[in-house]
Amino acid sequence: MKVLLIGANGQLGTDMNRVFRDAGDTVFPFVHAQLDVCSESRVAEVLAETKPDVVLNTAAYHRVEECEKKSDLAFQVNGTGAMNLAIACQRAGAILVHFSTDYVFGGYAKNSPYEETDRPAPLNVYGASKVLGEYLIPDYTDRYFILRVCGLYGVAGSSGKGGNFVETMLRKGSDGEVLRVVDDQLLTPTYTVDLAEAVRKVVVTGKFGLYHLSSEGECSWYEFARHIFDFAGIQAKLSPVESSEFASPVKRPSYSVLSNAKARALGVSMPSWKDALRRYLKQRAEKTSATPVQVSV
User: pTM for this one?
Assistant: First the structure.
């Protein structure tokens, strides 16, 4: 299978590159400097050059607070960019795999995992721009996978955000900082290695459509942080707080857990977030030159 990977140097893109290559696929990795999804002509040019069977689009404008200030850019990258890829994929006969987010939800109360059939109701510009991409893709191609994901972290870190939540907690906890983490926003942290492996399994089924893919279970950001320190053996100065105690121009969902039932029906399962976190910490210790973290099992 020939695969065009957009955003190859990002947190998810790095693991997607490795997983698809390890499976025997030919991967053409592109970074933003080589391919801007907002350029319809450049998108068409690259697809003509590479002639892929599958296009994996991990490119996104996901700096949530910046999206509020630069809404035009957010809608251009996350909406128009997705449309450009859909048009080019339809013309080239390629499958489009596009990533969306749990942030398409939150505008109405729900206390059980969201299904693919639930109505999107974003609370912020980032979420709204991703909804636009979701709506545009089916208008321009019939061979697509839209995959909603949640709380991503990976060893490569998120280049656009300067790390990830796990790395931030480990750094600050090790430095002895006093940490106050919100305990009233529930989500499912998801390890990008697990996600990349599940993505390929979904793609090869040929069952096109919208799917949720995240680790199993749910927790608050505070609970996630507590387990990071417990598994890493760090005595951190950590306490729970309500999100109202943090001044932020961005509204975030209080509950954005996704149901994987539709993917499970395809035979694609995801591990629990606790299991994923343990494995992440082990891989992190192996991949970095820093003092290895002792992971409790």
Answer: 0.93
